[in-house]
Amino acid sequence: MTDIAPKNANRTAAETAPEPAAGSAVLSVAVAAPVAGVYDYLAGSDGDLPRGSLVEVPFGGRQLPGIVMGPGRGDVAPAKLRSISGAADLPVLGDPLLAFIERVAGWTMAPLGAVVKMVLSQPAAFAPLPQKKFYQLGQPSDNRGRITPARQRVLTYLADGASRPASAIVAACKTGKAVLDAMEEQRLLDSVLCDAEPPPPRPQHQHHPLQLTTDQQVAADQLVVAIGGGYHGFLLDGVTGSGKTEVYFAAVEAALAAGKQVLILLPEIALSAGWRHRFAARFGVEPAAWHSDVTPAQKRRLWRFTVTGQTAVVVGARSALFLPFADLGLIIVDEEHEQAFKQEDQVIYQARDMAVLRARLAQVPVVLASATPSLESWVNAGRTGASARYSYLHLPNRAQGAVLPQIDMVDLRATPPEAGRWLAPPLVAAINARLAVGEQSLLYLNRRGYAPLTLCGACGTKLTCPNCDAWMVDHRLAGRMRCHHCGHESRPDNSCQTCGESDQMRACGPGVERLAEEVLWRFPDARFAVLSSDTVNTPKAADLFVQSVLDGEVDIIIGTQMAAKGHHFPDLTLVGVVDADLGLAGGDLRAAERTFQMLSQVAGRAGRESRPGVALLQTLEPQNPVLTALAAGDRDRFLASEASARDAAKMPPFGQLAALVLSSRDLDRLHHAMRLMGAARPAFAGVDIFGPTTAPIGFLKGKHRARALLRASKNVNLQAVIKSWLDAVSMPSGVRLQVDIDPYHFL
Predict the structure, then answer these.
(1) Which one of 354, 643, 651, 704 is least enclosed by Cβ atoms within 10 Å?
(2) CA-CA distance, 660 to 523, in Å (whole number)?
(3) Based on the number of CB atoms within 10 Å of its own CB, is 14 exposed (0-12), middle (13-18) or buried (19 or more)?
């Protein structure tokens, strides 16, 4: 996103600025606000602060956190500058992190301050930690008084020499605070002020050594050797169930042994219960977690302990990439192919790519792990014949003797389900066979709710969102109609608002709720559960769901893409994909790749232990190249074909793409902006520009939208091309422009 910073936003008139101290240094500060560039401030009472110092500064009418980026630019007289309010008593940020901030802003074309705001996301952490009084055994004076039973219990409790807070002593000794005060007065106890919020316990790198297979050990050895040796990129490619996690845990162990910090990125942190339990079993404690469900107080503590180096391992969503690690030694991106690593608003970035950038600047190894690598990583690992940027580590077999599931097609043209039903006879028979022997099944359909479309049977009117060019989705469990783009909700109404007919609104197509309805009808004695973001929307709910499946309380799981996210269910032997063609249509350049990845991942949930697994894919197009490659287990052939097609079209990763998205609540202003951009459209060798034109979803979240797409050769400075174009356009007020480098959505 590009924003024009208000000129002299921090430079008030001379009469309102403080009188500068004689010889006061001038420093440039990057402020945590979505504004471009840095601003000059007087050093103030803290003196000439070094680059990377964390400060608080006046900005407009607010006090905001910021980072000292170096000496001031000197283009404004000191008398007109304001002073830094104060410096935080925290370590200085290192040059690798500062360079990362600048590079992210440059690559994404986001304001520098917007990236700084992501790094300084917890300004409350600038304040010192609260203090708490701890007690320990003292050196009693002659006037020690009588040793009552309560006092004796306290003395016995503290006899091990440890210091403990009053609350712990009072609870353990069944006494009152007054007893402790009296004992302190008589020197029976000494007190000391300590931080009330201790850092998280450090994982134990020798807690529970792993027994690895030969393939795992070969890969792990290469990762361990790389720790402390500077930057090195790895693609860890292992089939589902091959033990990739255990392999990169070996690298985590080596980094911890070297006293380094570790960052592990997961695409769906809310579904990571199994992963966290495995980490705790391996290292003795769970890692510190960073994601949207973590409380502000927990985030504040974690941010501070990260910048001070007291947090050893952080597992988090994509935003954890911007935590200020004091001594980073390893970055791991698990399920690196996942689209969830793409941030789509504010600063638009791909966390996988930015993780590689941060690792390179910090001179540490980065591990990209996946059973279905992204084409970008596949190419960077040299698998298409190009020069390799990453080392390639391969785990071709499942661990513990398990075998990959058999994948078969169910041709819906030959064996269709009954009218109004969605499960074909072969899939129904397979589920019945699993129920008979006590095994579990998973039905996968990547559609939330009951039905994706509701229309009038009399006039054909489709129920659409008032804020978007999108259908309202029927969510019958919640009794609501919802827009999955903007979140608008309404109550169901069986009367058509267009023709006035009643009892004519018809649900079209299935969602997971409708599939659950069919499961109840077909298998009335089976226990089933729905796994979607509507039913499992917190880490705690995810933990409970996973445990219920592991405990054998669920016979049939009905899930969206959440069901494909690395779950390990030993009794799950059948996966049924209800609509394997879903996702293959449309103009998304990654549609085939994403479909192959998702179907591979969900099929991989079957047969992960001793019992063999089967995946049945219901399709109307069994000869589709994506599905035939999947059924043949020939992933490499699919990736080679996809790479060839992308290369011929000069599409990523063989070319560059960027999208310019215009939006406005006023359609006339949007059209005016489109004309201005069209008139200023530049001509560059190696660059093709399409648009601007109305976006495929032309009305979204109450705003009218237009898009331009740029395609460029790899050797073109695409950001410079875009900048030159935008510099020639005076954007009308009320029109917002977003720049998306390497777009993943084409809505």
Answers:
(1) 651
(2) 50
(3) exposed
Q: What is the DSSP letter of 250?
A: H
Query: Contact at 8 Å (CB) between 407 and 619?
Result: no
User: Which helix H or strand E contains 444, and what residues bound it?
Assistant: strand 440-444
* 3-state DSSP assignment of residue 702: coil
Residue tagged 């590079």 (tokens): 103
**Alpha-helix runs per DSSP H in 390-505:** 425-437
High-pLDDT (> 90) share of the chain, %: 77
Query: How far, in Å, CA of 286 to CA of 280, rounded?
Result: 5
Strands 189-195 and 131-137: antiparallel
User: Would you give the distance in Å from CA 496 to the centre of its chain?
Assistant: 40
pLDDT of the residue at 15 = 32
For residue 492, the one-letter residue type is P
How many CB atoms sit inside 10 A of residue 96's CB?
Answer: 17
Q: Per the structure block, which two tokens stand in for 732?
A: 């009308």
Whether 78 and 42 have beta carbons less than 8 Å apart is answered as yes
C-alpha to C-alpha distance for 139 and 162, rounded to whole angstroms? 15
Residue bearing tokens 């500064």: 57
**What size, in residues, is the chain?**
747
Q: In what order do the strands lie in the sheet with 189-195?
A: 164-165, 131-137, 189-195
Tens digits of per-residue pLDDT, 256-288? 999 999 999 999 776 677 888 889 999 999 999
Calpha distance 212→489 (Å, rounded): 51
CB 126 within 8 A of CB 91: no
Look-up of token digits 């919640």: 478
Report H helices in 120-213: 149-157, 166-173, 177-185
- Token representation of residue 507: 């649900």
Burial class (CB in 10 A: 0-12, 13-18, 19+), 429: exposed
Give the whole-angstrom CA distance, residue 614 versus residue 183. 70
The first and second tokens of residue 29, run together, are 């500060």
Q: Which of 306, 338, 340 is nearest to 322 (CA)?
A: 306
CA distance 592 to 530: 26
Written in H, E and C, the secondary structure of 290-352 is ECCCCCHHHHHHHHHHHHCCCCCEEEECHHHHHCCCCCEEEEEEECCCCHHHEECCCCCEEHH
List, for residues 365-420, the tens digit of each pLDDT value. Answer: 999 999 999 999 999 999 988 889 999 999 999 887 778 899 999 999 999 999 99
Q: What tokens appear for 95 in the block?
A: 């040059």
Pairing of strands 406-411, 614-619: parallel
Long-range contacts of 291-294 (CB under 8 A, 24+ apart): 291/316, 291/317, 291/319, 291/320, 291/539, 292/317, 293/269, 293/538, 293/539
Tokens 């409350």, residue?
Answer: 124
The whole-model pTM stands at: 0.89
Which of 20-29, 217-226, 736-745 has the least mean pLDDT? 20-29
First to last CA, the chain: 17
Dig out the tokens for 491 from the structure: 């109550």
Tell me the Cα Rg of the chain.
30
**Residues ≥6 apart with Cβ < 8 Å to 481:** 454, 463, 472, 473, 474, 475, 489, 490, 491, 492
Sort strands 164-165 and 86-87 into parallel, antiparallel or unpaired. Answer: unpaired
For residue 664, the cross-strand partners are 704
d(CA 325, CA 93): 8
Residue 316 pLDDT > 80: yes
Backbone angles phi and psi of 45, in degrees to 5: -70, -15
Q: What is the signed CA dihedral for 295, 299, 302, 304, rounded to 10 degrees?
A: -140
- Strand, coil or helix: 160: coil
| 281 C-beta neighbours (distance < 10 Å), count | 11
19 has pLDDT over 70? no
Return d(Cα 638, Cα 599) in angstroms, integer: 13
